[in-house]
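queue> pop job 88
queue> type: inverse folding (structure -> sequence)
queue> payload:
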């Protein structure tokens, strides 16, 4: 692997060192100069609450309350920093572990767990929060985001100079998604149309068990220029740098400057999902290396150096964290079980004869399962064979 390979940290934008020391950067310092101690504490609060959400959801899955869960553990700075740069009218297309982005955008994290419990398909209002539904198909949503961005552009909501109107779109995806053709197609369409889109790639080093070194010989950010898309690499464990580079890219998009590709260099500290065992493909030494670069510890150290992390704030945050955990456990366990026929409810926005016919058939079939001594019996069980073989 060359020294400029995909796993090097060369060229990363960084405003906070792993020890929490503020480092100057002439291009990006002006973009964070307005962030006072209160704003930094709010970022810290966001990351702590999202990590508590992760731990509670993982425990709920282990207890059989969720079918699956995908942690964002270790990626809080990339998500919270970038989401804090969004304007109210901007629109987000996430993949399936953007819990930090959802939290910042005002989505109730308990609603996120409806998807992982299998109660529904993650149906919170995408218009009300500017946050689209989670996408489980790797990379497919980058095309959805590109199409939406092209629509925003054609609606005249880009480059007007009105900060309340000009709109940008963000697509979040991982390093593994960059190997999917959908992402390349999205880059083509976004580039040639100068769409107001930010491609935010969270390079957490592992596409399940496949390392980035098996997907690329150069940094992932180098993909962008090949499509005519400006690109930047940022320390994804640095919440300030993540905020700054995303803010710059969003401002470019809203003003009509077209798309940007951001590679947030971070690490998935947990498993890919709760069905995964990362100890089978990565070393404890690697995990410890990244644990020393924990994004929450980094911002905490910076606030402590500033003398801006008072005890009453930490006590209140601990109380809020406990309340979140209690509410998540109570809410998830109280989630009902939808009827099987609800699968037909949202296929189309208006009534559809084919769907109505399929619903009627299914409900008739379902009603043929009569209660028996053990709860259920198979349909047609009263029919008696008249001889010969049965199949």
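queue> result:
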């Amino acid at each position: 692997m060359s020294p400029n390979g995909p796993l090097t940290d060369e060229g990363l934008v960084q405003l906070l060192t792993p020890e929490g020391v503020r480092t100057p950067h002439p291009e990006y310092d002006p973009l964070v100069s307005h962030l006072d101690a209160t704003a930094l504490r709010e970022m810290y609060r966001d990351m702590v609450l999202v990590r508590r959400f992760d731990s509670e959801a993982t425990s709920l899955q282990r207890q059989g309350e969720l079918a699956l869960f995908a942690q964002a553990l270790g990626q809080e700075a990339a998500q919270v920093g970038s989401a804090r740069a969004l304007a109210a009218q901007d629109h987000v297309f996430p993949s399936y572990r953007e819990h930090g982005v959802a939290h910042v955008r005002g989505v109730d994290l308990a609603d996120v767990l409806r998807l992982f419990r299998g109660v529904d398909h993650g149906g919170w209002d995408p218009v009300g929060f500017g946050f689209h539904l989670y996408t489980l198909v790797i990379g497919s949503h980058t095309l959805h985001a590109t199409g939406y961005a092209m629509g925003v552009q054609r609606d005249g909501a880009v480059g007007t100079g009105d900060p309340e109107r000009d709109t940008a779109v963000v697509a979040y995806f991982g390093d593994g998604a960059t190997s999917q053709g959908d992402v390349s197609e999205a880059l083509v369409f976004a580039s040639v149309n100068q769409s107001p889109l930010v491609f935010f790639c969270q390079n957490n080093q592992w596409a399940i068990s496949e390392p980035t070194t098996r997907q690329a010989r150069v940094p992932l950010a180098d993909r962008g220029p090949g499509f005519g898309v400006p690109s930047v690499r940022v320390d994804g464990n640095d919440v300030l740098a993540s905020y700054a580079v995303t803010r710059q890219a969003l401002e470019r998009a809203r003003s009509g400057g077209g798309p940007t590709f951001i590679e947030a260099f971070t690490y998935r500290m947990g498993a890919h999902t709760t069905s995964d065992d990362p100890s089978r493909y990565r070393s404890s030494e690697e995990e410890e290396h990244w644990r020393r670069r924990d994004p929450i510890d980094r911002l905490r150290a910076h606030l402590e150096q500033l003398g801006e992390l008072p005890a009453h704030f930490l006590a209140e945050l601990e109380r809020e964290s406990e309340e979140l955990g209690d509410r998540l456990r109570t809410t998830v366990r109280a989630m009902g079980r939808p009827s099987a026929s609800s699968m037909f409810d949202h296929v189309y926005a208006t009534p559809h004869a084919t769907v109505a016919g399929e619903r009627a058939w299914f409900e008739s079939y379902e009603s043929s399962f009569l209660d028996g001594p053990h709860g259920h019996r198979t349909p047609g069980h009263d029919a008696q064979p008249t001889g010969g073989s049965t199949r």
